Structure formats: C-alpha cells, structure tokens
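Customer escalation, tier 2.

The customer says the design service returned an amino acid string that "doesn't look like it belongs to this structure." They asked us to rerun it and document both sides in this ticket. The original structure tokens are below, unchanged.
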C-alpha cells in the first residue's frame, strides 16, 4: 500500500492582512505547517489555525523561519548559529503553547522559505536548526528536502527525518528546487500538478526543469497555500492520489 502525507503552509496572514484559505485547505491536507510569527502569522492567527487543525485531526507543524516579516522569510540572513537556534526555540515554544491551549501540540518542524533552502547545503545553519529541535524535543520529527545537509545532520543527531516533495515547484537536475527568481519555478496547472504528485507518490520520481528524470523519495507532499488557485490544486491532488489507490495520511502519530 502506498501512503503519502499532504502538507501545506498555513496561517500566513498577519494582522489585518490575510493570505490563502486556511479553512478550506485544512479540509484537504493532513499536516499543517503553521507560521510562527517570524515570516508571517500572529498569535490570533496561530490560535485559530491550531484550533481548526485539531478539530479536523490535522497534524500541527512549526513552520519556523528567519525573522523577516517584510520579505516573507524569503531573504537569506547570515546569522550567528547560536542566535538562529534561539530564534527557532522561541518560535517552537510560542506555537506549541498555543497548540496545547487548543488541545493539540506541535508534532513536527519544517523550516520555511530562505531558511529551508539555505540548510539544503549550509552545514552551519543546518546544524543550528538541528540543535534547536534536539534541545526542544528530540522526539520531534523534522520535514525537509531529500539529500539536504539538514536531514543528514538531523539523522546523525538521532532525530526522525521525513523527506518531502513539492507538488507545484520545479526541480533542478540535482533534486533541488528551482529558485523562485527563475521562470517556471512555480507550476500553476492543476491537472499537471496532480499528475506529477501521483508519479511522486507511486514512482518516487519527477521530471526536472530540463526534462531529466530525477528520483525523489518522499513521505510527504507539499501543496502551497499562497499560490493562485491553491485550494483547487490541493483538492485535485488529493482526489488524483486517492483515484490511484494512494492512501493520504499524516506521517505523525495521532494526538
């Protein structure tokens, strides 16, 4: 039986500004990467999303990032590793406290944006993220890109690692994500995205931006919540997976 998790970045509004349809996506995905206030999100949004996730049995993950509200966490920041660890602990603690008030808990961590991409190859910052998780809760799984320094170091530290693939992002021939600054980095056709997700789940492969087949072993698929038509894309992805006899289920244990 093929089993896959569907995760999405949620809670990415801030104050009076909203982004994406969290409620609709929570009816589709099995894991919610909740913004912790450093790239997006605020206490009220965090609590609302956590409460809605608990009500649906959706896993709550801490979507930690650089402190970059203005740049939506998509600007790389050269930070002292100790300071980065402390800022991630702050975000983890904040979201976990709110999740527990709503009857849940943080059950995994996923870095966001520039931090996610930086720790694919940056050993120092990857180690700082691993340190934060190990200090907070060494039983907390981490979600990241297959073959990244982050997942490698996390595994060496004894953390549970979960590799993910991206439904709507283009890949390079080495299995990395194409930069959002490059044309074609983000896919928008729902049918195309759904078909590649079925292939990712059943064949563990995707076609790179230059047409080369790339092997991508993943236990979770990320469907972005902030792209145009995100809800319809996510709905199409889930329906196509189920039609292909793929079981869609969270990778974490039930609360």
């Amino acid at each position: 039986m093929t089993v896959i998790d569907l995760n999405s970045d949620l809670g990415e509004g801030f104050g009076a500004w909203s982004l994406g349809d969290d409620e609709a996506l929570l009816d589709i995905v099995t894991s919610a990467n909740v913004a912790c206030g450093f790239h997006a999100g605020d206490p009220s949004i965090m609590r609302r999303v956590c409460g809605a996730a608990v009500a649906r049995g959706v896993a709550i993950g801490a979507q930690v990032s650089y402190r970059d509200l203005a740049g939506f966490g998509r600007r790389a920041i050269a930070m002292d590793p100790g300071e980065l660890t402390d800022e991630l602990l702050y975000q983890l603690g904040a979201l976990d406290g709110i999740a527990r008030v709503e009857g849940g808990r943080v059950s995994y961590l996923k870095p966001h944006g520039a931090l996610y991409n930086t720790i694919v190859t940056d050993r120092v910052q990857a180690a700082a993220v691993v340190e934060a998780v190990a200090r907070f809760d060494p039983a907390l799984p981490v979600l990241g890109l297959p073959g990244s320094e982050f997942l490698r170091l996390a595994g060496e530290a004894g953390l549970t690692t979960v590799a993910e693939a991206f439904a709507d992002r283009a890949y390079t021939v080495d299995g990395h994500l194409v930069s959002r600054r490059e044309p074609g980095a983000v896919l928008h056709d729902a049918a195309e995205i759904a078909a590649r997700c079925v292939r990712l789940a059943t064949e563990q492969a995707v076609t790179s931006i230059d047409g080369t087949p790339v092997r991508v072993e993943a236990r979770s698929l990320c469907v972005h919540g902030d792209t145009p038509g995100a809800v319809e894309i996510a709905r199409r992805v889930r329906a196509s997976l189920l039609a292909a006899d793929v079981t869609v289920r969270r990778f974490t244990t039930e609360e």
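Tier 2 assessment: The sequence is consistent with the input. Residues 202 and 217 are 10 Å apart (CA to CA). The chain has eight helices and ten strands. Sent an explanation to the customer and offered a walkthrough call.
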